[in-house]
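Table S2 (text version). Query chain:
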Amino acid sequence: MLSGYKIKRELLRVLRQPKQWPNDFLSYVGGARYYDWVLAYKAQLRHGEQDVGEKVAVFLIFPSQGLKPSHLRSLRYLAEKQYKTILVSNLALSDADLEQALPLCERFIQRPNFGYDFGGYRDGVLAALNAAVAPKRLLLLNDSTWFPIIDGADWVGDIERLDLDFSAAASNFGVPRPDPAQFKTMSFDYRTDHKRFHYCSFALAFGPRVLKDPDFRRFWKRFPLTNKKKSTVRRGEVGLTAWALRKGYTHGATFDMASLEEALFELPEDRLREAARYLIVPEDERMKTVLLETLPMLDAMPKGQCVNLILTTIARQGVSYASAYFNIVERGFPFLKKSPIRLDPKARATTLAILDRLDGPAAIEARTEALEMAP
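Corresponding structure-token output:
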């Protein structure tokens, strides 16, 4: 049962936003039941060629243009790392696509497209927890990124070396959102107790302590599914992170935000300015305006101001979007977000330019896929 405190908190929140009442509150108290009782029977299960195992990955895809080479690249990487993959799709796959996917997964779940990524994750997590072999490590990944976008990077190995209860590729809202017009004086204060701090859901990992916790199963079983994206982010990314931190689990990310300012200052000036020129801002109009005004003057900008411009962009747009070039080229981060290709012409051009600069097999593959995506 949902606690009285949580119901009261959600009720007070939606009452402050009357346009969302009653759908938002009803999805909070009944979203999981609606899916389980009304939609879940439409899900289809196919067994793959992998055996069950103690290391499990849930890989969620939304193959609007069918199964792509990058999907298979991700599946092969997980198989190479000895993870048994539960492939979850929010859309149907063709028989030809299934023929390619099934050798690379333990099972395939085709489900109704309800609940965004956390709806698909929920089906995969519960399947993993109910398997004949109890998982000791669990990964959650989705196809909102190209992964791995570079050769030689080993995110799974990095996660295992961290050896934390709850970990991710990256985090967001660890720094208050500064005024972009005041970037020259911005202060980079990364903390995990900032409001709405969360680990990004495109790549998450859980260790044995979490997987043995009955509350982890309850979190997913009762997760309030909805087809509202903002509610899913708040209840999913933010809610899951808050749950893990409240329980006292060790946590962290493979992309170390705490050392970011120092890492930028350590770059030679030419490489620092290159990182600034490749900043990606698909949705923040105020930040776009500041970049439009400042980037033409980048060569004359003092190093500290250049660092602050990058940090301000990251704090406002998120590190997995804003500094993709720096992340990949300078820090070996193997993820590149896809959505900027569709969201903004400048972000699309910059993402394609990054793929041109990388020029490895995965990047060439991703560039072909990017050009097929509607701008």
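Notes on Table S2: The first helix runs from residue 4 to 15. The mean pLDDT is 92.
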